[in-house]
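Cross-posting from the modeling subforum.

Setting up a comparison between two proteins and wanted a second pair of eyes on the formatting. Protein 1 (sequence, then structure tokens):
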Amino acid sequence: MRRVGALCVGAVMVAVVLVGCAAEDEPGAASTAVPGSVASQAASLAPIPERELAESPAGLAFVAAFKQQHPAWADREDKYIGRYGARLCLSDLKDGRQVALSRVPSRFEQTDGKPSAVEAEQILNLAIQMLCPDKAGVA
């Protein structure tokens, strides 16, 4: 079944490439739109930087350190902890440190509460230190 699925995905990708090439090769030809279902399937195959960062060695190290330092907020699957840390770096910090800091409690919320302001600061600092040290100076 996986082989059939992989072949279907490959066929979709080839079709997308061929449609794009055919439109470029014909001078004066009308633009050919890719059907929504084909386009959405091709888009879902694009690499997700958040997932890549979360599953990288740095992402795995972040998860381990997070679970050790914040066991009260680590009651979820590792992949989610890694993705939330990656999201802090890749999305939230684009809006500034204070915005990213304000989003920490909702990212790591559990049924019995949210991280405190102090814990949120520690979590954000851990994410920056381990996942995006280049953003340490973000204001």
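Protein 2 (same layout):
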Amino acid sequence: MKILCGCFLLWAVFVPDGCNGPTKVAPPVQTQSSPQVSQSTPSTADLIPTGLFEEDPRALEAWHRFAEGGRYRIARREDFQIPEAAMKEHGSDPFFTNKFAYVGGDFNRDGRQFDRAFIVVDTTTTRNEGFGLVVFNAPAGEKSLPAVHWVLKARDLSKSVLSAATDVLSLTEYYESGIQKVCNVRWDKKREEYSCEQSR
């Protein structure tokens, strides 16, 4: 009996008597879906290797012009899908383990250091072909900016490793089958452009 009385009292508290006239009911609280918060802007350390342009403000300016307000960024280790067997074989090779895919050297063989080569990612697309290879040639004059040259654009380079030895720039693609395809980047002085030639 006590249980029934308790239940009745609770019911009486929460259910208003219709004879007492209209009761003011608070309008339901409207819950607005929270807008998706964009990820915080990556720090400079996540976009550019530390010290890369530290003593070369002209190269930094050239990079910012090329990046088009963030459209392009330097590819990072996590952007690639190098086959596990290749990673195990070259686990101590910095070209495989470096955080950023870039190298330096005298790639156009004009005697001026420091040309820089980058694998870049187009941030406006999620397609596999969102990679590119670009070289910044060191300028001839102190007041000039490095000249930017596309070698490859809109390609799938997710299984490729960029490497260099002084003036030799190479791009090696690794396959799950164990096959490797090496592309050597050459500078054409007459045309003033780079090309990627498959090695035999």
